[in-house]
Amino acid sequence: MNVWQYLVRRILSIIPTLLGMTIICFIIINLAPGSPIEKKIQEIRFSSSSGGTSENSGLVTKEVVDALKKQYGFDRPLLERYWIWLKNIATLDFGESFSYEEPVIDVIVSKFPVSLQFGIVSLILSYLICIPLGIFKAVKSNSAFDMASSVLLYAMYATPGFMLGVVLLVFFAGDSFLDIFPIGGLHSDFYENLGFFERMVDRIHHAFLPLICYMIGSFTTLTMLMKNSILDHIKKDYIRTARAKGLSEKVVYLKHALRNALIPVVTGLGSFISVFFAGSLLIETIFQLDGIGLLGYQSVLERDYNVLMGNMFIQSFLMLVGNIISDFAYIVVDPRIDFQ
After folding, report:
1. Smallest Cα–Cα separation from 311: which of 33, 34, 97?
2. CA-to-CA distance for 130 and 190, rounded, in angstroms?
3. How many angstroms separate the CA atoms of 293 and 282, rounded?
4. Minimal CB count within 10 Å: which of 170, 212, 218, 310?
5. How would you class 36 by CB atoms within 10 Å of its CB: exposed for 0-12, middle for 13-18, buried for 19 or more?
6. 125 exposed, middle or buried (CB, 10 Å; 0-12, 13-18, 19+)?
């Protein structure tokens, strides 16, 4: 099977996979306690009881409940509602948000740039830093630098990103210790009055601390994976043959060992894409970033089913596409790989 046949087969496999995932999620979300109808009824009761003194002011009639069910589409059976939702997403129509009262796709698109910005930058920086660092640690294996950096890396790995965010804000933002970075947000209040390069500096200034928190989890994993993969390959026969030919250690590591050692590293590329694009609820909350992670959490609290399903569909699609990207990254690293 050639590459293009494999690509077509993998793309076609996305359809039944997404179908199964959406069925399960749709059923679980709709069968969970609470619903947009109950939340709306509570709001009506609260506004009625606070605005009048009558004994029946907090009651909601059956006619009102039936009207709400019809308005939100809950007057139909569960499977029929799913079929309607499935037909609508063919045109990227995820319905209307119950909370924002606007199309779901518009809500997600408005939040997506925040998570996308941090996701892409974190992904690029992680690979640009971790791969060279992993190679250098492999070259200097068991040295003082290798030992000290490993202790630091494992300490970073054991530190949750949101906890690090709190520490960074306490020490480097505000007036508690140092006032070097802003407390949160994407840019300053006077951002619109700045020039192009000043805007870039302002965004970098605001993004520096959140980026550290986004990267801390994957930083150790990528670095140690790169190091261990290099160490595994330099013990193999083809590396011994390269050394026997009189090649320098630099050529042995960077030309012969690195190409094969990159294969395990690119395996996780797809998963990193889905995780970074999904955003992080706690990090976004701490740094006041209105992204996808915070949107998902608020949608659960508000029982905003349409936003939850739309968010889940997009993130699942990104995950499946990321897996295909990981497979094709194998070809770039090692063209000898043959897809079956």
Report:
1. 97
2. 36
3. 8
4. 170
5. buried
6. middle
Query: In the Cβ-directed half-sphere of 306, how many Cα atoms lie within 13 Å?
Result: 26
Name every residue whose Cβ is closer than 8 Å to that of residue 234 and which is 6 or more positions away in sequence.
138, 252, 253, 257
Q: What is the pLDDT along the chain (340 residues), one digit of tens a residue?
A: 566 777 788 888 888 998 898 899 888 888 877 777 777 777 777 776 665 544 544 566 777 777 878 877 777 888 888 888 888 888 888 888 888 888 888 888 888 888 778 878 888 888 888 888 988 898 888 899 999 999 999 888 888 888 888 888 888 887 777 778 888 777 887 888 888 888 888 888 888 888 888 888 778 888 888 888 888 888 788 878 877 888 777 777 777 777 777 777 776 666 666 655 555 777 888 888 888 888 888 888 888 888 888 888 888 888 888 778 777 777 666 666 666 5
Identity (one letter) of the amino acid at 298? Q
The residue type at 315:
Q
Nearest 5°: the CA angle 76, 304, 60 is: 65
Angle at 198 between CA 197 and CA 204, to 5 degrees: 90
**Residues sharing a CB contact under 8 Å with residue 188, sequence separation 6 or more, in sequence order:** 182, 194, 202, 206
CA distances in angstroms from 300 to 29, 36, 38, 148, 208, listed in the order given: 9, 10, 14, 43, 29
The whole-angstrom separation of Cα 338 and Cα 1 is 8
> Is 264 within 8 Å of 229 (Cβ atoms)?
yes
